[in-house]
Amino acid sequence: MIRLLSGISALALLAACATTMDGVDASDFIAAIPLEESTDLPAVIVETSVPLPLPGQMRPLETADAKADQSPVEAIREGRAQALIEPSTQGYVNAIQVYPYTEGALYRLYASPGQVTDIALQPGEALVSVSAGDTVRWVVGDTISGSGASARAHVLVKPISGGIRTNLMIATDRRTYHLELEAVTSGYMAALSWRYPADELAGLTARNAQAIARESSSIERGLTLERLNFDYRLSGDTPDWTPVRVFDDGRQVYIQMPASIATTDMPPLFVLGERGEAELVNYWVRGDYYVVSRLFRAAELRLGERRQVVVRITRVQRRGAAAGGFGG
Q1: What is the pLDDT of residues 39-50, one digit of tens each?
Q2: Are 196 and 123 in contact (CB under 8 A)?
Q3: Which of 123, 121, 297 is nearest to 193 (CA)?
């Protein structure tokens, strides 16, 4: 009987030590509320490539019988007409007609005898081949402007007479261009090029991804070393996810977890307010850091249900200047 009472007393003593670690009872803690971290990214509107409206595109819907009676020649003619994009006043930048690039579109080019029209490709785009339907009455050549990463390929076309037509296909290492060439005597296009909405959208997505990576790798903006307080003590269990360091900037507490925390469960955070009372506290997870929205007297990281693993974080009172000077 005496041995049984001794065992019960020892268990009670151990339980008391577990609940009054650092002089704070575990039941006094309240669970902190994790918040989702949001990164505000700059919003950039990118116009999608839409073929310019052409005469005859707005027409009544044809019946199924009418489409069934359509000959292959008529289908080809109609498909070509709908894919053809003509120059527009809004598309001009100085003397250059800038088309929005769309896969499979036909771009109109008007040229004149005795005049050269410049077809400028995207900077850095490598020219693979150029094919023209009529190489007898149309002179086609190519050249390069700039050097290095800014080098730009140009295709030059010139008709030898007016009133003639042909088509031109340009293949590059990035895309294919299809053009409809027509020689006129009343005027000509000095140059044409393209803008690439899909590339602009891809660049915007990449910049946003880099911004997210930068935000996740940084804890907080405006942190200064002079205001940081590292007077925190860790006690309790020593799991693999034990914090590396704890500090505050006078407003928020930062708990740095080990890099291996990314492959394990994140332990919930329980905090005790400055006055020793349970206070509602929010926190965010930024990379390997827990960022607590306010200062606390003590906190616990707990993981598990039956046998909880607990790491307690206690804020240590700073020593006075005189005591620090004498090593007290």
Answers
A1: 555 555 555 555
A2: no
A3: 121
Q: Is the dihedral of CA 72, 77, 79, 80 positive or negative?
A: positive
Under a CB-based contact definition with an 8 Å cutoff, are residues 258 and 240 in contact? Answer: yes
**Residue 10 and residue 186: Cα distance in Å, rounded?**
107
Contacts (Cβ under 8 Å, ≥6 apart) of 197: 46, 47, 48, 49, 100, 101
Give yes or no for a contact between 97 and 87, defined as CB atoms under 8 angstroms apart.
yes
Range ranked top by mean pLDDT from 14-23, 138-147, 193-202, 319-328:
138-147
Alpha-carbon distance of 99 to 106, in angstroms, equals 10
Tell me which amino acid residue 87 is: P
Rg (CA), the chain: 36
pTM metric for this prediction: 0.48
The DSSP line for 215-272 is HHH---TT--GGG-B--EEEEE---TT--SEEEE-SS-EEEEPPGGGGGSPPPPEEEE
Nearest to 267 by CA among 233, 229, 299, 295: 299
Q: How confident is the model at residue 326 (pLDDT cuts 50, 70, 90)?
A: very low
Alpha-carbon distance of 10 to 7, in angstroms, equals 5
- Structure tokens given for 210: 């880099």
196-228 b/e (C-beta count within 10 Å ≥ 16 → b): bbeeeeeebeeeeeeeeeebeeebeeeeeeeee
Q: Which residues, at least 6 apart from 101, have a Cβ–Cβ distance to it below 8 Å?
A: 49, 175, 194, 195, 196, 197, 198
Q: How far apart are CA 244 and CA 54, in angstroms?
A: 66
